[in-house]
Amino acid sequence: MGMPANVEIGSHVWVEDPEVAWIDGIVINIEQDEVEVQTRDGKTQVAVSLSRIYPNDVEAPSGGVDDMTRLQYLHEPAVLHNLATRYEINEIYTYSGNILIALNPFQPLSHLYDVYVMERYKGALIEGLSPHVFTIADVAYREMIKEGRSNSILVSGESGAGKTETTKMLMRYLAYLGGHSGAEGRTVEQQVLEVSRMIYIWFMLVNALKFYRAYALFK
Ligand SMILES: Nc1ncnc2c1ncn2[C@@H]1O[C@H](COP(=O)(O)OP(=O)(O)OP(=O)(O)O)[C@@H](O)[C@H]1O
Fold this sequence. Notes:
5-stranded antiparallel beta sheet; 5 helices; binds adenosine-5'-triphosphate; actin filament binding; alpha+beta; 7 strands; calmodulin binding
């Protein structure tokens, strides 16, 4: 859904682009419900429907905002642009209210997860620190203690997005908060990951059995 309400000649807007998804530009002409936009890359996009352009907040901070609720416009191009801007400076975590958006850095960022970072995030106020998966674990843990009942963290994303890595970091931090090694010298983190692996193997075995039964029926 576009936001044509205040569009006039000279307005900064986002328009769809087949190569980079969204590109920013300036409105140079308006004819009824169609606009002509001069895009940043010098292409002129003629006859873009008014309903397919989105306002661009050119006063947004150049490094992006660490919580999307602070964006002036919360539409797709603004959200993607903010995430891309932060990603360029290796800021892979961004809040959207109390949800954490994690981008896959496709490279090890070990400095983000060491014990000194864990120390800083332990019991800290969200406002004082950069968005981090440790904050999510910390808040969930403290709520669990306060309420005296189980809590859960939902990690979702498409295949390869980084759910397993994110879950490992959550486990590592929760194990750090727990503060002690488990049975046979294994850490809580190791034990939890071993249990996850067992569940996965069990799931694969059940599916293999189902497949074999279906195969036997059709044979
Ligand atoms: N926070 C991160 N730091 C460093 N590398 C990461 C991070 N998140 C993801 N990666 C990289 O991306 C790869 C894929 O991530 P991961 O296995 O966590 O995805 P997934 O969402 O669990 O995928 P699937 O649903 O297919 O199992 C990892 O092997 C790792 O190389």
